[in-house]
Amino acid sequence: MKDPETATIFAGLDGRTDAKLPEWYADRHGVTDPLSFSEAVRDLPQAIDTAVAYRNPYTDEWVETERFNAIVEPSRLQAEEGDAEEEALFHIPTDSYAIINPVDVYGPLEEVLREETVDGTPLGDVMFGEIRRYRSGGEVHMDIMFDGLEVRLPGRVDPITMGVTSGYDFFGEHAVYVEGFAQDGYCSNSMRSLTDKEVIKHVGDDPELVDSRTVTVPAGGTKQFELVFETYPVAQDDSFPVRVETGDSTDQRTVLAYGTEM
Asked: Could you tell me the superkingdom of the organism this chain comes from (predicted)?
């Protein structure tokens, strides 16, 4: 992955914890006074949706549409009257897009980190890591580790610290994902994808069942079949999320519907 636009180092859950960065991590990043995790999350850009319009090239008039919403950063909209350093607009998806802001995702995690412990110490007291921003803060990835939650490999003196990596974006890709992560304290190597990646997509909460099949697949075999559905007519090209669910698996794709006004 390319270098982030900004990176924030954090230690401890909030101001009530007296957490410090492990010495090896502080030396590597050159940070002596990190933010808390709670402060770092609340400093991340937020998103809201607002009405959007398109310009009719024949009449030069702006036409509002209810099928799309602009995903914007509210504080940047307020600053655009002056000298806004970053653009407020993230994305213009269809109205099926569901915004998930960082506080909504990681806020509930804070209570878990207060209650769960490692060697009798709350995880929130020993957590540390890094939050990286891309695309003007509309894409975020973070590594969350826990000092003392580690493994030692045969023949190695320095431990490997365990944790999770998580992230989200406002561009219609991953609303939220999380997977296992480990960091080598001896060098800069990291080990990602240690667990299955759990992903929440940017789709609405009321999907419509459009087709179903009952399929029996023998062990080790494969079977190909079609699911058929119709989209509502659209004037301009539009995309729709389509999710396929089985008893123990789920997958999703975005399909393109071509507009009638070509």
From this structure: Archaea
Domain that holds residue 109: 1-206
The beta strand positions in 73-203, using DSSP E, are 89-91, 117-118, 121-122, 127-134, 139-151, 160-169, 174-184, 190-192, 198-201
Higher pLDDT, 67 or 249: 67
Q: What is the dihedral of CA 232, 237, 260, 53, to 10 degrees?
A: 90
**Torsion angle of C-alpha atoms 64, 69, 71, 73, degrees rounded to 10:** 50
Residues 215 and 123 in one domain: no
Closest CA to 43 of 73, 69, 70, 84: 73
Number of domains in the chain: 2
Q: What is the mean pLDDT of residues 104-131?
A: 91
pTM: 0.67
Q: Decide: 204 and 172 in contact? Cβ < 8 Å.
A: no
Residue 215: pLDDT band (50, 70, 90) is low
The token pair that represents 227 in the structure block? 């699911």
Q: What is the pLDDT of residues 186-211, one digit of tens each?
A: 545 554 444 444 555 545 545 555 55
**How far is residue 46's CA from residue 39's CA, in Å, rounded to a whole number?**
14
